[in-house]
Design goal:
By secondary structure, the chain is an alpha/beta fold. The chain has helices at about 20, 70-85, 100-110, and strands spanning about 25-35, 40-45, 50-55, 90-95, 115-120. Pfam families: Ribosomal_S11. One of its GO terms (cellular component) is ribosome. Part of the 30S ribosomal subunit. Belongs to the universal ribosomal protein uS11 family.
Length: about 140
């Protein structure tokens, strides 16, 4: 009579934990996109994987209030809070766009205890612009 094969359950006694809480992050990159109408903040690790993000629209700011420096400040706090709990100490900052929330966002990052190793403006600039339309013939 052949022996019966016992099934082995690997997941039975193991405690399930979320991946967000177990990841330790000491260095990161903070991308700030400040347009005339909104401010979007994305926090990534050094390799570029998104860890946390927030925007002025998700912080319940609507219409003209989305473009204010206060909205940018609130957005940065919401994006950085979970990452600071994971142990973020130093970060590079990449700023894109001409919006009014640029300076307020930088000040807020500094107030939350993150050392800024590099501040870089990555706003796209046209070298020669688009080709102009052809002359109008009447």
């Amino acid at each position: 009579m052949p022996k019966t094969i016992r099934r082995i359950y690997f997941r039975r006694n193991r405690r399930i934990s979320s991946r967000k809480n177990t990841r330790k992050l000491t260095k990161g990159v903070i991308h700030i996109q400040a347009s005339f109408h909104n401010t979007i903040v994305t926090v990534t690790d050094v390799t570029g994987r998104v860890v946390s993000w927030s925007s002025a629209g998700t912080c319940r700011f609507r219409a003209k209030r989305r473009a204010t420096p206060f909205a940018a400040q609130t957005t940065v706090v919401n994006a950085i809070r979970p990452v600071v709990d994971q142990g973020l100490k130093r970060a590079k900052v990449m700023i894109k766009g001409p919006g009014r929330g640029r300076d307020a966002a930088l000040r807020t990052i500094r107030k939350n205890g993150i050392r800024l190793t590099c501040i870089r403006d990555v706003t796209p600039m046209p070298h020669n612009g688009c080709r102009p339309p052809k002359k109008r013939r009447v």
